[in-house]
Amino acid sequence: MTTRTSILYLKKDTFQFYSPFLATILEFGFVPEIVQDLDVINKELLESLIKAFVTNNKIAPSNLLIVVADSASFIKDLVTPKGAAQQPTQEELQTQARTLIENVPFENVASKLFKLPTGIRVYTTNQELYEAIKIAFEKQNFIVELVVPSFVFGSQFNTNQQLDAETVTVILKHQNAMKQYNLLIPSPSLVEALPEGESEDIPGQKPAKTNKKRLFLLVGVFVVLIIIMVIVYFVSNPPAASGK
After folding, report:
1. Confidence band, pLDDT 50/70/90 cuts, at residue 86
2. What pTM does this model have?
3. Which of 3, 2, 1, 10 shows the shortest CA–CA distance to 147?
4. Which of 5, 102, 185, 224 is 20 to 30 Å apart from 179, CA to CA?
5. Burial 3-35 (b: 16+ CB within 10 A, else e)
6. Minimal CA–CA distance to 15: which of 174, 129, 139?
7. Domain annotation for the chain: domains and CATH numbers
8. What percentage of the chain exceeds 90 in pLDDT?
């Protein structure tokens, strides 16, 4: 992707839109006539309103990254408490995951399975909704290559639930590391989820803990050097003997 990337943050009742060519983040609200409870009611009207949205706001075409909010998703963690007498196998967990996916109330379900330290995270959303939005923007000459869950960017989205300058920066900085989470490319295999409690760690990058250890090491080396310099100074400049 080029640096000229727009971001569409898809939520349950609206989507927010960031463009590098605009000064503000825009919002597009869903009305019951086009989208209700994540179901697409009228694709043609949705497409027409998105065309008007792009035209009226004079949004220049660009690459477009669609980020699906937790509110527009169904997420279930299948985990076993530590110390449990019986631990389910990966095969058993994946069987449970498939059952959950089959019961999601959408005709076309997009899903991915994420590895957790003690189980699996089952992620699902309505494929028809993001596909309809994708097609509408592509007809306005946008290029959509990635559709990813918001939680893969860390807990910042879980806390904020908004697209703002800070979350835009996080997304654009790490967009190239998100390809393994792309909902446009079905994958039967498990992918790694972000470690719990390490929301700043993006897959493919060194954990923040490593940076902290490096900082402590540098401080320790600095202190040792200061001590050595003090010792060398006193050895090179012994105090003059006092005479009687």
Report:
1. confident
2. 0.76
3. 10
4. 102
5. eebbbbbbbeebbbbbbeeeeebbebebeeebb
6. 129
7. 5-74+108-192 (3.30.420)
8. 51
Summarize pLDDT for 98-129 with one digit per residue, the tens: 899 999 989 999 999 998 888 889 999 999 99
Show the tokens assigned to 114: 């994420």
Report the pLDDT averaged over residues 169-197: 77
Q: How far apart (Å, rounded) are the C-alpha atoms in residues 78 and 87? A: 12
The pLDDT of 52-81, averaged and rounded, is 93
Q: b/e string for 77-109 if b means 16 or more Cβ within 10 A? A: ebeeeeeeeeebeeeebbebbeeebeebebeeb
Least confident of 158-167, 196-205, 212-221: 196-205
Are the C-beta atoms of residues 30 and 42 closer than 8 Å to each other?
no
Beta partners for 8? 17, 66
Token pair for 213: 């250890």
pLDDT (average), residues 60-67: 96
